[in-house]
Automatic annotation (TrEMBL):
Homodimer. Its EC number is 1.6.5.-, 1.7.1.17. InterPro entries: Flavodoxin_fold, Flavoprotein-like_sf, FMN-dep_NADH:Q_OxRdtase_AzoR1, NADH:quinone_OxRdtase_FMN_depd. The lineage of its organism: Bacteria, Pseudomonadati, Pseudomonadota, Gammaproteobacteria, Aeromonadales. This is FMN dependent NADH:quinone oxidoreductase.
Amino acid sequence: MSKTLILKSSILGEDSASGMLTDHYIAQLDEPNLNVRDLAAIPLPVLDGRGAQALRGGENLDEQQRHLLALSDQLIDELKAAEHIVIAAPMYNFHVPAQLKAWIDLVCRAGVTFRYTDKGSEGLLTNKKVVVITTRGGLHKDTPQDFITPYMRTILGFLGITEVEFVYAEGMGMGGSLREQELNNAKAHLSRLAAH
């Protein structure tokens, strides 16, 4: 399996700023065998009550539940195999896209990617580096409206992943020179990361 996992989540297709920045980063990586998963192009099921029951396993699962459990296992295997993870997380209505949240819900599994101890939860995925590319229509970095940065840092830490680098491109909806400058700054940041 590839040691680099790329997760795209924008619903904007070719017009996606986060997708363009992710492609810019991919082009500079010295990695011939990338695992790219476009969560918008091939959406994952939204977790419901029956799905939550499926992720706990057991012998009384129906075919649909067994399929969901197998899908979760596959996503977790991809995550475990990766040493380097790139997550495109554009801001939609102040949070991550539903497509990315669906992936998160399928990889956060007690006893598999984290466990409960008498001291609280403990992440089981370690020795991984994550780059989160987050684009926003407005200006939200370092403000109370930026829910993505603390959420992604928390959820990744919950899984045991603490080496996380955020790359921001803001003002995408504001156009003009601000948009261009933000994209150029993000590209430069990604180029520096790819060189290391």
